[in-house]
Every structure is written in C-alpha cells, then in structure tokens.
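Chain entry —
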Amino acid sequence: MKMKKGLFLAFVTLIILALAACNQDDEKASTDTGDDKSIEDAVEVPIGYSGPISGPAAYYGENTKSGLELAIEEINEEGFEVDGELYKFKLIALDDQYLPNEAANNAKRLVQENNAKIIFNPHSGGIYAMQVDNERDGYLIGAYSSEPGLIEKGNELTWRIPPGYDIYLEPFVKHQMDTFGKKIAFLPTASQYGKDWTNALQPTWEEAGGEVVYSTEIDFAKDTDVQPIVTNALQKNPDVLFVGGASEPTALVVKAARELGFEGGFMIMDQAKMDEMAAVLDGNWEILEGSIGVLPLVDSDFPGTDAFVKTYNEKYDKNPGSEAGLHYVSMYALVEAMKIAGSVDDPVAIREALDEAVQNIPDEKAVYTFEGVTEDGANSSLLRIGAVEDGKVKVLTPEDLGIEE
C-alpha cells in the first residue's frame, strides 16, 4: 500500500512539473510574439555608410559615423514596428578615404552584398559619384553635404541632410567685410566641395565690393606642411582668410596663419566646425578669434540638444559636432519615415515620407528641428551662424547680420 501511495505522489509531481514547463513555454512564446516581441528576433534593416574612416579626413568621418552609431544603439534597445513587424538596424560602414570613386564602389558593395536600401555619405564628391547609379540600383542616399548642386540634378533618391551652403554666403561676406576689410585670400580644401564653395563665394565677395588678392587650394592628403602655402597668401596682405575642409586640417591652417603673424579674420567653410577646430587646438579659442562659421551644436538650443550632448559625452568623452547631431537625428527621421511608408526597404516610399517624418521626430530626440523636406530632397532648416568674439562663440541672429531669415 505504501508503495502504491509513493508511486501516486511521484506521478502527481511529474504532472505538476510538466504543467509548469508548459506554462513557461507559453509565457516565453508570449514575449516572442504578439505585443511583447523580443528584440533578439527583430528583423535587421541594413544601413550603409561610406566615409573617410582613415586618412586625413578620418576625424571627420568618425564624427559623422558616430551619430549613426549612437542613434542605432538607442533604437535597437526596443526596436520599432512597421505594419506589425518588429525591426532593428544594422550599420555596415566602409572606408572610402574621402575618394569619390571609392564611395561609389562601396555603395555597389553595400547594395550587392548587404541589400542596403539606404546609404549615407558625408562628402559631395562621393555623393555625386553615387548619384550616377543610385536610382538604377534602388537605394536612397543620405547625403551629408551642403552642396546645393546635389539636389539640383533631379535625383529622386537623394536626401540632403544639412542646409545648403549658399545660405551662408551673404551673411559671412557682410560680417567679415564690415569687421576686417575687403581683401580676402582663398585657402580652401582641394576637394570638389572646396572648388564649389570657392566658385560661389568669389563673385559674392566681389559683388560686395571686395577683392580676392590670392587664391589656391590645399590638398590635405599631400600638403602636410601648410606653412609655405599660408606664407604665400599672407604676402598679399589679406584682411580675411577663407579656409575649410575637414575640421582637423583646417585648424592647422588657422594655427599656421596665427604663427606667421596674421591678425585678421577667418571665414570658415561649413564643413569645418569651430568647436572641433578648437579641440584640435587644445581648446585655445584665441587662435580662432575673428572667425565666422556654422554655430556649434553645443551652443544650440533645440529640444533634444542638451540630452544628446550629455549622452554623447558619456559615450565618446567629447562634445558632439553637427556631423554627429545631424546623422543622429536622421536615423530617428528614418524610423518615422518607414512607419509612414509602411516599408523598411522601399526607398521611393521612404523618400516620399520624409517631409512628414522630420516633423514627427520626438522632441527628446530632436537634436535639430526641421520645417520639412523640400520637393527636391533637402531638409528645410533655419539659419544658424556663430562668430568667435573675445574667445567665445557668439550666436549671430539674422537681425545681427542685417538679413531676413
């Protein structure tokens, strides 16, 4: 009798354990499907990036890429849903060394090997090269360049992220000419972007009554010693130097000019950022005194700026520039665009949804805010300019510059 009772208890125990195991399986299933889907099982959406990860523009390339990385890391904590399916992003980054042909080749690889439908690139030469085939190959270019011509070609799969540099020409010229004088020397980067900036700035300067006393370009990949070039420019006694390219080498041009006794102002192409240049100069803002350029992100006051600066500092141990901030907010815009489009892999639908999407970015992620996306594919944003006065960045409003926004 005791043996039968023991067998009965053992049998009951086995049933209880089996039921408990089934219940655990049911609970696990409920977390993997339905409203509580598991991020581990989310479908990966490839995001391509081709940029200068090595070479003289590597600092610039890493800054652009870091914004994508941080946003993707945050988004992938929970993923995002499109038409009931849970998705997460995967960034595939390739080095193009700031070379247009390498950018185009990388884009081909990203499409063919990774099925990327969205590819970011942070230089106009690379973007122009990608535009040759991107519509045929079916991918949207996240174009981080202020080159106006990028959206004038009618390419329907190009999304220009920063504002066009043409909005800076008149206020830059007016401020520097009024402050320092009418003679300018051109020392921009030798890239296509530098050439385009020069071609736009020179007639603007001359039409305002100024004189170009010297003009050359600097190939930062080859001209590692810029002092002889700067010396030649200063022999023409300019009041203002037009400089630019990636922040790190541009800072060295400014430093060389000061060491050679230049006391005038600097007009800084929008690719170079004054706060990043100051970091290269060991935080010595006095070297940048009299500069005018794009307002640093850390001096901006958009809804999500402060939180982003804090998070970025904690991760990278430095302040973010606009390269990081604009790439970061672009990923959140893409999430909204994919939701509106109802697709993560239809670049045409995603591009069409961007106008509404940039206006739907959550405030806490709005490192920058946009009024929309124009029909030709450019983010529409407000003019933001800064000047270095008394060793600090001063925000120049349209009223300060005597222009209408």
User: Anything to note?
Assistant: Confidence is low (pLDDT under 50) at residues 1-5, 7-34. The longest strand covers residues 85-95. The chain has 14 helices and 15 strands.
